[in-house]
Write a structure and sequence with these properties.
The complex is a heterotetramer, with two copies of chain A (231 residues) and two copies of chain B (218 residues). Chain A is built from six helices and eleven strands. With 231 residues, chain A is of the alpha/beta class. The longest helix of chain A is centred in the middle third of the chain and has 12 residues. Chain B has 218 residues and is of the alpha/beta class. In chain B, strands 4-3-2-1-5-8-10-11-12-13 form a ten-stranded mixed β-sheet. In chain B, strands 7-6-9 form a three-stranded mixed β-sheet, with no helix packed on it. In chain B, strand 1, helix 2 and strand 2 form a beta-alpha-beta unit. Classes of the chains: A alpha/beta (231), B alpha/beta (218).
Chain lengths: 231, 218, 231, 218
């Protein structure tokens, strides 16, 4: 724990092995752990199960891992901005489990919060509920959703201190805080690493207790999927 | 004449009440924001983590860290709030949104909706749609009355995989404004120049014509 | 909704009736809605079920409501800093449901988040689990806990804007944010009411969507239960 | 001679590892903070919403809005974090705390603990204790070996209402440091001058004496 600060992605990602389950923060390409993904691509670990709301695009984000066929299963809510993803899915090389976005987020939070399963009305009467326990509570039907955890969770924050406390910027927060909770080992890459005490304790989004490793990332591209302008 | 997408959005915008929190889906629903009535102040939610979504940014204000659920760059307004995905869907699932407007491939007279998957075609996923239809009491579907092959999208029973069950009570199409009540579509308003018969012929489900059915004005 | 801003507790508390279920934020006497409690005492509403982590002390907090026998049931995790509470409990006038603190917090959050029930290991094998469904999941035993909601939730924040966005100070945050989520009508009293835009959108603890009414409180006593000093 | 409260705390403090997140209960456990070994940096959690609890404030720094779980005024340290009650217990229930130290009325050789309720007496409630014992893998109980009537608090089976089941693996009393393994207490260390026989006679449960039992030094 006291060895929490790492110098770069290469050091921070030590311990990753084939066939592990990973969580990757981000919504679309916003707030994704770019440095961690780059390192996962370099390491060429295979057989991965990736839990991430989206699967990147062909040449960025998780798409880079798909190009190398490192992923055998994706657990996401919205995918397919990505031709290689589609090819692998249709050919059966890639297993895809689609979950409602809110259910996915809550399953991660639950995994981090020691809640093994919870009921939600979302998805009742749809394919999402197939094979899952359902139950009527106060006149409404609900689905029992088991929580999710991961061997490693990779999250991207705006600023972080050396105790692992994190703050995010804008909508780049998204899934990062809940995935940080659910990783057996959570690795945070931050744009700016500061000393403990520099972040206001009242305005920290992710307490450092959820972050086992932290490093300052480099070369953030922050690609925009839909650049939309008011003239 | 059938309503344009803009007119569908305009008709839906009349249902907005001051102070409401509203989630607008991609497509026609997004256009609703352009027709919010004078004096009505609504707060738009983007389920990726923003309440109080503003217009698209000017070139100099583009921020890769500030996008909407359609991955478009957006802006904030005074009083906006940012939050994470589980807090966002706590709002939605917990019934705190006043209105959801979303598109559909099919709806049926039981209030079922299908809008995320066509078997045999590439599936992109449901995103937040299942949460929105399960969590919001007040939902308006915005869509064309028939698909591009001229087949009704208002059915006795949805044929496509469902997004949610028994959750839709209102729909605005290019031809009409209808409610769903007691297992039937109820025709409430007609697009200007569209006849009851036209709506009937393009509605493949039980249709009741309201006594006070009227024509929309724009 | 647009009529969200009220001038004082008297206006803001309109609609409260006998026999309602209320949530009251705070931990001990820290972060309690002092103005709302003062008004509840003045209104003398009776038969109340109060959900609050603690029950105040004899002459402050919920203790003031107990003095007037306004409360018929308390749902709390830790009580009894309070002689009148003890008398009413032992005489059977006051029903008390004790819940583990984390379970209480999570039941409120679940109530606000549309989760009707969830499994937790907390309390398994104890009185807390009596009459509740239990289940083995991955080799461990869990208790199914139903969520909580309230007719009114009263919360106390440090600052709030006219859209109901709230920020809390120090450990006065405690149960306030989760109870704000779980109130059918949530009333926030704040030390300082500001214009929308004055609070940084990235550092708001409770989004205004959870707050139906807000007012600026007066005469905060902020009593300290255990004044502990380093010389 | 039996350990003082301070010595119990001192012995427990030796179990702390650098970088740990620790929750210290009220009473003897609180004293552990005074004996944290040189070079060991632990972060104290207060379950009402603070990670990184500092010492009590000086008179001029007292803040009614900053208290610990015992309702005492406290301070923060550089790197502290504040959070709400559900996030606090997400940490605890989710197994993120490295150590919980708490007092007990009774523990038994199955690892059960009772520390919140005496039937017939005024019940104050369990507060966060049930969450802490259910959520933390590593728990140390700090208590006297016998109660004030001289009766053992280490039992075959707890007689009081339980706080948690099969969760306690270590206890430091005024007489000894014991572990709980395979349904027995295992005597690991003796307080200075305390005999194995004394511990045996005051332990009302199966007791195994470890081969390497030794005397604590202070």
């Amino acid at each position: 724990m006291s060895k929490r600060v790492y110098t770069n992605a290469q050091d921070a990602l030590a311990g990753i092995e084939d066939n592990m389950t990973l969580m990757l923060g981000g919504f679309g390409l916003c707030g994704i752990p770019e440095n961690c993904i780059r390192e996962l691509v370099r390491l060429k670990v295979k057989g991965l199960t990736c839990i991430s709301n989206n699967a990147g695009v062909d040449d960025f984000g998780i798409g880079l891992m798909l190009q190398q066929q490192q992923v055998v299963k994706m657990i996401s809510s919205y995918v397919g901005e990505n031709a290689e993803f589609e090819r692998q899915m249709l050919s059966g090389e890639l297993e895809v489990e689609l979950l409602p976005q809110g259910t996915l987020a809550e399953k991660c939070r639950a995994g981090g919060a020691g809640i093994p399963s919870f009921f939600t009305a979302t998805g009742y009467g749809t394919e999402v509920a197939e094979g899952k326990e359902t139950r009527e509570i106060d006149g409404r039907m609900y689905v029992l959703e088991p929580s999710l955890t991961a061997d490693f969770a990779y999250v991207k924050a705006w600023k972080g201190d050396k105790y692992g406390n994190l703050i995010f910027k804008g909508t780049a927060r998204n899934f990062n805080p809940v995935m940080a909770m659910a990783g057996k080992i959570t690795i945070a890459e931050v744009e700016e690493l500061v000393e403990p005490g520099e972040l206001d304790p009242n305005f920290i989004h992710t307490p450092g207790i959820f972050v086992q490793r932290i490093f300052e990332g480099v070369d953030y591209e922050k690609r925009i999927e839909q650049r939309t302008i008011t003239q | 004449m059938a309503l344009s997408k803009q007119q569908i959005a305009q008709r839906i915008a009349r249902e907005l009440n001051d102070g409401w929190y509203v989630n607008l889906g991609i497509g026609i629903p997004t256009l609703v924001a352009n027709y919010i009535p004078e004096g009505v102040n609504v707060t738009l939610q983007s389920e990726n983590g923003l309440l109080g979504m503003g217009p698209f940014p000017t070139e100099d204000k583009v921020d890769a860290d500030l996008i909407n659920a359609g991955k478009q760059t957006v802006t904030m307004l005074p009083g906006s709030v940012l939050f994470n995905s589980s807090d966002s869907f706590a709002m939605i699932r917990g019934g705190h949104m006043d209105l959801t407007v979303l598109g559909a491939m099919e709806i049926d007279q039981n209030g079922d909706i299908a809008n995320w998957k066509i078997p045999g075609k590439m599936v992109k996923g449901m995103g937040g749609a299942m949460d929105l239809v399960a969590g919001t009491e007040n939902i308006i579907v915005a869509m064309t009355h028939a698909n591009k092959h001229g087949k009704s999208k208002l059915l006795k029973q949805c044929s496509l995989p469902l997004t949610g069950r028994a959750c839709i009570k209102r729909v605005v199409t290019d031809l009409a404004y209808l409610t769903i009540e007691n297992g039937s579509f109820v025709l409430r308003e007609l697009a200007p120049g569209v006849s009851v018969e036209e709506v009937k012929s393009l509605t493949n489900g039980d249709l009741v014509v309201a006594d006070d059915v009227c024509e929309m004005t724009f």
